[in-house]
Amino acid sequence: xxxxxxxxxxxxxxxxxxxxxxxxxxxxxxxxxxxxxxxxxxxxxxxxxxxxxxxxxxxxxxxxxxxxxxxxxxxxxxxxxxxxxxxxxxxxxxxxxxxxxxxxxxxxxxxxxxxxxxxxxxxxxxxxxxxxxxxxxxxxxxxxxxxxxxxxxxxxxxxxxxxxxxxxxxxxxxxxxxxxxxxxxxxxxxxxxxxxxxxxxxxxxxxxxxxxxxxxxxxxxxxxxxx
Amino acid sequence: xxxxxxxxxxxxxxxxxxxxxxxxxxxxxxxxxxxxxxxxxxxxxxxxxxxxxxxxxxxxxxxxxxxxxxxxxxxxxxxxxxxxxxxxxxxxxxxxxxxxxxxxxxxxxxxxxxxxxxxxxxxxxxxxxxxxxxxxxxxxxxxxxxxxxxxxxxxxxxxxxxxxxxxxxxxxxxxxxxxxxxxxxxxxxxxxxxxxxxxxxxxxxxxxxxxxxxxxxxxxxxxxxxx
DNA sequence: TGCCGGCATTTTGAATTCATAATACCTTTT
DNA sequence: AAAAGGTATTATGAATTCAAAATGCCGGCA
Lengths: 227, 227
Hints:
elongated; mainly alpha; homodimer; 227 residues; 2 domains; DNA-binding; Arc Repressor Mutant, subunit A; Four Helix Bundle (Hemerythrin (Met), subunit A)
């Protein structure tokens, strides 16, 4: 029995705008016309503006007083900063998870790990990433810290756009899988310090940033290079 | 030359409500009457409701659809979770700070540290905490990661209310000062790993939570015990 | 030709109004 | 007297309206 979802318009609208940003249909830096969005969504300006306020405090859009809203522009530094943060959060999630994770949960993660390995051997990128993501989510969930989850998801959303532009070279991929092996090992031993360290240091996300940093200057804007 | 502050009403209102919450004039769990707040602030419902949306995504208030807003109720678990997170963030700030902090910045922090020690020796609680806070803020600033700063400040705001109820026993205090000595040492050596570890493990905030946890059950609400 | 200033238009900010969901109160019935 | 149901009231959700700021356009002027 799932909770009844009283969907307010502003939540709905916020979700839709998030999608638009994620899929690159709203260009970063470009001015968001309230009227236009109102028309496309078929709502009045009130819920739309409320949605923009929420998105602004999530860091997805920027509100310039008397000058409307625009999609937050990401710089390489911002992305790097965000990834540093996410690394720390993943590390914490690993430590906390080890303190209380059940045998069943560990088994489930090991199972996911095996599936991931299969996808790796078959060089199936998309399925690989999907499982990869689920593993990290499982650890995050096992940490049993809602505040942490909320923060992580928020950060994750901010940089979701740039994930499309990642390049997965064979070397990086192998390294990533190797890290996951170590992770599983640490998890089985419930070695929180070690799992945390692995997650912090070797966040597979890092390589994406490295890739990016090679191309774009530190304070330069990230162009909306999406799929 | 400071930036011109275009103060929108909703920002102003949000700030005011934050103050009300912080000072315990809005009781956690108690329903926030829109009309009443509108009258006290002398604004219409539109900016008020926008402010509430912002505060909600900051985690300070809770919006129940069709049922108005209420000040977020803190449970001991939530506070503990938040402090775990803040510990991780402080740890990160230490690591990052060591990578790029200048000699001048280190000197400034050492200076603050000396001031703090004086207040400690004189048993001047309030000044001690003030300087203590400034030290942590300095390290956070030296980390040069705006996203991190933003997150930390947000988390800090959420639990600001409970800080009033902390008890500083002699033992805890001595321990805290001792940690600070180690911190300074690590900072001088620019030993990021170590500074991070010290900050993570021995966040002086932790003791407050411990104190609290001794009195209140884990999922119990924290009563609005303010100064 | 290029720049400045004023008017018109557009867009945002805030108040008001209208609609609908929730709550309280009162009546009715057992 | 207590409970159930229905109506009245109140509070919230959303649209509309009004006000003010910003932008754009045009003409005048150097």
